[in-house]
Amino acid sequence: MRVRDWDDILSDVVESNVDPDGWRAVGGDRATGIGEDLYLAHPGVGAFQLKTYAKNPYNVDGVGAKVARQVDGDIDPLFPSQESGTSLFGVQQSAEDEKAATERAKELESVVKTHADAPTTPGALFEDIMDALDSPAYGPMEFDHHDRPETMDDLTETFEEAEELLEQEFEDIIDEDVDRGFY
């Protein structure tokens, strides 16, 4: 297992070229200290673990690693299903240029107008918006803004070795940045 910058892990997710709506995630506060833990999984790619914290509103730092090559029967139940009624997440990449941004905005506007004029569901609206934005990864997510979801503790136990290694690397980053106090 190779520990890498969290941005590199998200680049792997973006460049995975798998069905974008097959991704699932679990996230919340770290068990100890500042920051958040996030697990991302896709049956065709495997599972990733990220540890991040926001230095300030414009700068996030962290580490991550691929923790499983596949989502098997032991890991699969730990992630939310499409039917679970949990929150949703999406990974976005910025438009390549002004022309691409304008095209996406027009397509997004069309999607919103279509859903405003016809009966729809929140799930259908979300999926159509993700398609209009050409999102490379989206799906159900269990996330707790104030604590840790129960399944996160199960994932931490499942990937205990990765957790220890990532925690060491992450603590090094925090020690470099945070021991000087607040910005």
Q: Can you offer a commentary on this structure?
A:
This protein is of the alpha+beta class and 183 residues long. Helix content is 37%, strand content 27%. Strands 1-5-4-3-2-7-6 form a seven-stranded mixed beta sheet, with helices on both faces. The two termini are 33 Å apart. The model has no long low-confidence stretch (mean pLDDT 90). This is Restriction endonuclease.
Q: Enumerate the spans where pLDDT stays under 50 for 5 or more consecutive residues.
A: none
Largest sheet: 7 strands, mixed
Element order: H for helix, E for strand:
EHEEEEEHHEHH
The count of β-strands is: 7
Query: Main sheet: which strands, in order across?
Result: 1-5-4-3-2-7-6
Protein name: Restriction endonuclease
Describe the protein's topology.
Elements: E1 4-5, H1 6-14, E2 24-29, E3 36-42, E4 46-56, E5 59-68, E6 87-91, H2 98-117, H3 122-132, E7 137-144, H4 150-158, H5 160-178
Parallel strand pairs: 2-7
Antiparallel strand pairs: 1-5, 2-3, 3-4, 4-5, 6-7
